[in-house]
């Protein structure tokens, strides 16, 4: 998009485009299936007003969010679908790949194996809460500097794990880092660069 | 995932009262406790577990690690695996437990998984996890396709013609060697169950894995006072270096005086249908010189009754070498 700054069109990102068309499509489907009042939010809480939905409060990236979630909703789906924070990725959805890694009360967890209702009142940090494109978290900058990704799908989970690792007991050598990062799978095989990025940040901390 | 009612009880008594309404506490229970969610949520997504009610025990005051009056350790049901592994008392006095915990799962999962949840961890047998397949553990009477199918990772000890599913836990293997006691609060009061009596062999009812009844809530685990002068090792062998279940593992707590084994506590993982305490191996070592010959004899004794399946015969020799090496590591520590 930045290649064409002279374009007279607005510059929609791929994500913004998908979000817009996605929500339009969803609204169409909902309108066709349920009474209009059921699709609107009630009581200032985001989330579908469906039978059995439970009100919860999550503090996400420093902001309080009043939400209503079906008890079946995983923390991952809540973040992506209800709160529209799509930086956290769904890979295996069974706790085997680590793409969904977020921090709950400062500790890294697999958000796919946790129900959102279990986290009422808790503090969640996602990749969106680490840095911004203009002010990257040191770990994000190190991943860029060391080319710690190829397709990028696992990257937000890798970075969330790596940032948590900085506060965990971990030996100084690469083997210790590899052991503590083993819960994050990278099918492109960027492991060597990921370890280098993490070690650089650990040296500077 | 099927719908369920989410319940956050005021206290343990309320949790027990609600859970006591279930028809069973075993496979297919209509009421389930959830803590970390790493097993239950996974199996609910697969429709292997379909509870109508889920009781969140995370906010109950069961998250402490405390010394007991007799010099042992009391570990709360919801203590996270990572916290237990790094607890200074566990690292100092129960190293085999710390090592086993850190050999299991990933850093993220260890931050979620709890003591009681790990005790009740379910098998990774692919037929159990796939509702398109028959499975005597999931649906009694439907058969065991693993016996004639893919069984490379499954059990060689404690199996039956109805089920050969492996118990996947590392923590429980260490706890078996440490002779842990599991404390349960139930509708009729509290009781203490030695870990050796907690798990059931599959027999003709592989759907029943433990002695737990409806309403039984694991509140904590106690470990006896550490054996002074004991050396402890957990050795885990697997298909990749990390983040993988054991093909074979060994937990060893051994005391050696004057070159002779004065006491040994031994348990095996990855090879049994439950965390496998080997009294045979312990007896083979008692009073004997701590040397390679006797370590191998102990390993032979441990696997004497092993029954291989079509794809997992290698596990018998692998488990023997695993235990022999663990004993060597412990005797030279």
Describe this structure as you would to a colleague.
The complex is a heterodimer of chains A (205) and B (333). With 205 residues, chain A is of the alpha+beta class. Helices cover 36% and strands 12% of the residues of chain A. Chain A has two domains: 42-129, Ubiquitin-like (UB roll) (Roll), CATH 3.10.20; 138-204, Orthogonal Bundle (DNA polymerase, domain 1). Chain A is built from seven helices and five strands; from the N terminus they run ααββαβββαααα. Chain B contains 13 helices and twelve strands. In chain B, β6 (181-186) and β7 (189-194) form a beta hairpin. Chain B is globular, with a radius of gyration of 19 Å. The chains are: A alpha+beta (205), B alpha+beta (333). The interface between A and B is medium-sized, with 32 and 29 residues.
Give a topology summary.
The complex is a heterodimer of chains A (205) and B (333).
Chain A: H1 14-33, H2 36-39, E1 54-60, E2 63-69, H3 75-82, E3 101-104, E4 107-110, E5 123-125, H4 138-146, H5 155-165, H6 174-180, H7 191-204
Parallel strand pairs in A: 1-5
Antiparallel strand pairs in A: 1-2, 3-4, 3-5
Helix pairs in contact in A: 4-7
Chain B: E1 5-7, H1 12-19, E2 31-34, H2 40-45, E3 53-56, E4 65-67, E5 73-76, H3 81-85, H4 88-93, H5 95-103, H6 107-112, H7 115-119, H8 126-129, H9 171-177, E6 181-186, E7 189-194, H10 195-198, E8 217-223, E9 231-237, E10 248-257, E11 260-269, E12 276-277, H11 279-285, H12 292-302, H13 314-331
Parallel strand pairs in B: 1-3, 2-3
Antiparallel strand pairs in B: 4-5, 5-8, 6-7, 6-8, 9-10, 10-11, 11-12
Helix pairs in contact in B: 5-9, 11-12, 12-13
